[in-house]
Specification:
The chain is 37% helix and 24% strand. The protein is α/β, with parallel strands linked by helices and 245 residues long. Strands 3-2-1-4-5-6 form a 6-stranded parallel beta sheet, with helices on both faces. The longest helix has 15 residues.
Length: 245
Amino acid sequence: MRTIAVFGATGQTGRRICRLLLDDREFSVVACSRTRERLDELCASLPDAGDRLRVEVADVQVPDPVARAIDGVDLVVGATSRWQDGPALAAAAVEGSTDYCGIHLSNAEKWAKLRALEDSSREREVTIIDDCGTHPGLPGVMIRAMAERVPLRTAWIGARFDLEWDRLGLAPETVADFVTEIERTDPSFLEEGEWRRGYGKSRHFDFGDGDGDRVCTPMLLEEVRELADEGRLESTGFFIAGFGP
């Protein structure tokens, strides 16, 4: 049996990850969150997993509780709402000779901090992956997969949220973290070999749902930037709709 430590376990995505892992009897879960109250709520919402579920109160930015939570686990999953938690968890995982996988939003500062761990992760033979999930991870994967099939010079990726945000029951600290993430977003894309920037430089995408074209605003993802920097694409960018007011 493999043990997975999930940080941000009480959030929208973390809760789902815990449930999916516990549905498979090959896994046990260490569910980690900043507050005991939300961990109790999580346990009440999950099916009885017996000794396959353990909970730990741990703030990612406090090293000792994190080290205790990940001791002996096979994988650390970062599903918290702060991008800063990604490098912190990755560093703790490397120190503990454990693999790491995170779903934090993409930005250059996070990637620089993760790149700084490359030598130590190779030395300890552990894997670090971030920018996972449908957003932000899938667009770069889609472009690379398509480029393996056909010569590709232009790749525009569109996405949309289809959520009723006010019904998600987000914790206040999660809302604050999310607003901070949005404020840091870089609205850049590559067009005909030149980087352009600005929320007003939107593109229209038809998602085939009968709603017609949706206006999507640019949002730079670092893996897409790396693809552009490789020089194989003349135009590329990621655009998104559906944030709402």
